[in-house]
Amino acid sequence: MKLTRLLTKVANNAAERADCAAGQPLTAPESLPAVPEGNRVGDEAVCGLADLKFPGRPENRSKTMQTVQDGTGPTWACEVAEHATYAVTQDPHIVAGIRSSPGYTQQPQVAGHQILGFDNRHVVADCAGTPTYFSLEFGQAYWSAVETPGAPRTKDLFTNFVDTAGKHFGCATAAS
Length: 176
Prior knowledge:
Shape: globular
Order of helices and strands: HEEEEHEEEEHH
Radius of gyration: 17 Å
Strand order of the largest sheet: 1-2-3-4-8-7-6-5
Distance between the termini: 43 Å
Number of strands: 8
Low-confidence stretches: none
Structural class: alpha+beta
Largest sheet: 8 strands, antiparallel
Number of helices: 4
């Protein structure tokens, strides 16, 4: 907790010096959540989301470990070992930082959402009036599986991720 408080103080000082604090300093949490335990990807869900597609060869699904960070806060993340790391946040400080970064521009629609971002896998969508950041990074096991029949493509996985995780965060597509 001492390190958390120190890092929060450093971040607030840096934001103030850069004139981007906007009068909303960060506060350190009272406690840190326990580190989530990993488990094998099951047949029923990836990262606890029933409709999220497995990011690799289908035959490797049950052999792959996943770790889900899903608390009551504004951030959700999941690592599918060596395959992909998914993250979603509605934390206003993080979203403000993303929005003010160089290269943040209009991007093609994803899962029916008008989005802004850096590229086609790091975007902010409006979810019921709340800016929501979606990020997907691929690991070596995914890239090794790309040429295998049945392995999903990056664009399809990201669209599926925004659609599936978006529902978890109260997002509705423009069509719904």
